[in-house]
Design brief:
- The chain has helices at about 5-25, 40-50, 60-75, 75-80, 90-95, 100-110, 120-135, 140-145, 150-165, 170-175, 180-190, 250-260, 315-320; strands spanning about 25-30, 35, 205-210, 215, 220, 225-230, 235-240, 245-250, 270-275, 280-290, 290-295, 295-300, 300-305, 315, 325-330, 335-340.
- By secondary structure, the protein is α+β, with helices and mostly antiparallel strands.
- It has a four-stranded mixed β-sheet with strand order 5-6-7-14.
- Strand 6 and strand 7 form a beta hairpin.
- Helix 7 packs across helix 9.
- The chain is elongated and about 80 Å long.
Length: about 350
């Protein structure tokens, strides 16, 4: 029969375990400040994302366990002397502002974020992702220079991804210029998001001439393809560079084109910083050129940057995207262009 001594013995056994559990529940930051308890943090974490449909894809308990290390590693939290520092922290903002959060949470929760169907997030989740997309694209120089509306662009991209029943990972793939989705989804959406008057927005009126499709010879040396363009009354050879946002010419040629009237002085574009192939950055003046002749076709409203260097001229996207399709035949050494 249990006696009072048995009770005391059991209590003596349990007290260290109870104390250890209490100690384990306490959160201590890098400088030794006791900033709360694990259970209180978990309750705050659950509450923070209760109404967030995007986070319904997570196991909430596991998610909050994975969030905690991110929070504790944040410098302001890690070095805080205030014991109540966690009480006023907005966990959503803190997580979103940490560049490593996505990768950490994907690994920690063992959830394949990239494989989640975009449509499964629901309208509220999609709205949040579209808003985040617009915030990021608003800072992109290419989007700024093209005058594209980031909100309209993101709405279009997400709509296309959902319509194809694709995944979150496909959204990121669509931002890769080398991917089919970039050309099939992102670029058409970017064009639609541009003002109707933008020189970057392709218009059938920008191309004139008797043919719908033309094929012209190219000069090829070590995978570098050059094509002849008649410009300002003289023939010039341009390297075809689909990676360049704009065409490139020398300042000397730009001056000659201004004098001949090929550069439209009524359109004023801001200077732009470009990243060159050797890694250097250079700020260039930009111009709008009319009358770039290739075979029997003429392209107008083509954006070209000018550099104070003796450079090889580049035929970039600002020219190539005036056409519906273009293709280089390596074997035949020709360039085929199809009008819109």
């Amino acid at each position: 029969m249990p006696t009072l001594n048995h009770f005391y013995a059991l209590l003596a056994f349990l007290l260290p375990a109870i104390n250890m559990q209490a100690q384990d529940d306490i959160l201590t930051n890098r400088v030794g400040t006791k900033i709360g308890t694990r259970s209180a943090f978990n309750a705050k974490c659950h509450k923070a994302w209760t109404d967030e449909p995007m986070f319904a894809i997570f196991d909430r308990d596991r998610f909050c366990e994975c969030v905690l290390p991110i929070v504790l590693s944040t410098e302001a939290i890690a070095t805080a002397k205030n014991v109540n520092v966690l009480e006023n922290v907005d966990l959503g903002i803190l997580i979103m502002s940490n560049d490593d959060s996505f990768d950490h949470l994907t690994t920690c929760t063992e959830l394949n974020m990239n494989g989640i169907r975009l449509a499964s997030l629901g309208e509220e989740g999609l709205t949040e992702m579209r808003e985040q997309c617009a915030v990021q694209l608003r800072e992109e120089p290419t989007i700024q220079n093209a005058g594209a509306d980031p909100v309209k662009l993101c709405d279009c991209v997400f709509g296309a991804i959902v319509a194809r029943d694709l995944t979150i990972g496909d959204v990121y793939t669509a931002m890769d210029p080398n991917s089919p989705l970039y050309n099939e989804v992102f670029m058409p959406c970017a064009i639609e998001a541009m003002p109707a008057t933008s020189v970057y927005r392709p218009s059938p009126a920008d191309i004139s001439g008797p043919s719908e499709t033309i094929t012209v010879p190219v000069l090829t040396l070590s995978n570098v393809h050059k094509v002849k363009i008649r410009l300002g009354g003289a023939d010039q050879y341009f390297i075809i560079d689909s990676g360049a946002e704009d065409c490139f010419i020398s300042t000397k040629l730009a001056t000659e084109l201004e004098q001949s009237g090929a550069i439209d002085k009524s359109v004023i574009l801001d200077d732009r910083e470009y990243l060159l192939a050797d890694g250097t950055r250079i700020t260039c003046k930009r111009h709008v050129i009319n009358g770039m002749q290739i075979g029997p076709l003429t392209a107008d409203r083509v954006v070209a940057a000018s550099m104070d260097q003796n450079i090889q001229y580049l035929l970039g996207k600002s020219f190539l995207q005036k056409f519906k399709r273009w293709h280089i035949d390596e074997a035949a050494k020709t360039l085929t262009l199809e009008r819109h």
